[in-house]
Amino acid sequence: MERGAVASLANIFILAGLFYVPLNGCSKPDANVQRSNVYSIGSRTGTGKVYLPPAASGAITLFMCGDVMTGRGIDQILPASVDPRIYESYVKDARDYVRLAERKNGEIQKPVDYKYIWGNALEVWEQEKPDVRLINLETSITTQPEPWPEKEVQYRMHPDNVAVLTIASIDFASLANNHTLDWGRSGLMETLQALGQTNITTAGAGKDLEEAQKPAILKLPKGRVIVVAYGSVSSGVYKEWAATPSRAGVNLLPDLSQEAIQGIAAQVKAVKEPGDVVVFSVHWGSNWGYKIPQAQQDFAHSMIDEAGIDLVFGHSSHHPVGMEVYQGKLIVYGAGDFINDYEGISGHEQYRGDLSLMYFPTLDMETGKLLSLKLVPMQLRKFRLHHASEKDVAWLADVLHRESMVFGTGLVRQKNYLMLDF
């Protein structure tokens, strides 16, 4: 997610008694905001391959979403909460983020139960019945009182609130991101301990380099899903956060070099067996804007060509970006945020950061190739996921169709959900 999620709080203003907080990351927003069967998208039509997968035992459906940030303001409305004191440039109390959201969309009856934040996502999961649920968890789970020195934004959730994840039947959480160590290495160790007491498998961070690099292996009735998780410096992960043989930290992706590709390829080769599906979960890139750097695209292609990856699952962007199908395999460059406490914060409205997507890719387990991708749009209001309105679904369809056409794919709207046209 962001490198400074409120982000440069030096730009906070008080307007009419409300905070104005531009959500700027470390990178500048991209200026390029304008920019089968036969299905119509607005005034356009597409003739690509949009189809539902055959009902075959060799097909597996995943659920994926962007950043899940259940700390800070979200933590303050849950049954157990940490000390609300935070150390941001201007905001010193996590409950201020609750107040901002309430001023925008109305009072939240606190405390909420653990199902509350998931809202309509719960019924979508029940309808789609994915075989496995994968998220990027972008908060520390700790009561540690001291944040990382000079870290502008600090997310943490009380360990007792881990129930908010288990009640959603989350199977896997990537910890390779730029907020896992917001409360230091002690906070990371408490996070690992809290998640270790659940059925949620993790990857991307650990007590040492060996544990941080270790892929997650999810054994399902249909076969194995393996997740390799990395956090890139381009998303704001500090180099000092890198795990070492003797120090806890994240599984850092320092660059997009051939050496990095070869290292990931060796990891995958050591664990992948015939019939396995391997997901590369990577926290990378800027927070705002649709343009995908060529180096990032080349690296994603190399993951498929050289490293044995079947699906590239990228996150860090605050809004969904264009998607590609390369060699028959899905690349999600940026999934967008899924849960956060930014509701009352102004700035970058043209990207509609309040809208999020539930991703349901169905893959052929024998080949790892994409059979279909269903996308269910949601909107976050009062810290709760709601079905997006018809107007918002149409807006997302148009924007993502435009941005995905760059990669030779498109989006087709079907009632209240979208299908990838490839």
Automatic annotation (TrEMBL):
InterPro entries xrefs: Capsule_synth_CapA, CW_Biosynth-Accessory, Metallo-depent_PP-like
Domain Capsule synthesis protein CapA: 61-342
Superkingdom, taxonomy of origin: Bacteria
Family per similarity comment: Belongs to the CapA family.
A family per Pfam: PGA_cap
Gene3D superfamilies (alphabetical): 3.60.21.10
Annotated organism of origin: Pontibacter anaerobius
PANTHER family: POLYGLUTAMINE SYNTHESIS ACCESSORY PROTEIN RV0574C-RELATED (PTHR33393:SF11)
Signal peptide, first to last residue: none
Official protein name in the record: CapA family protein
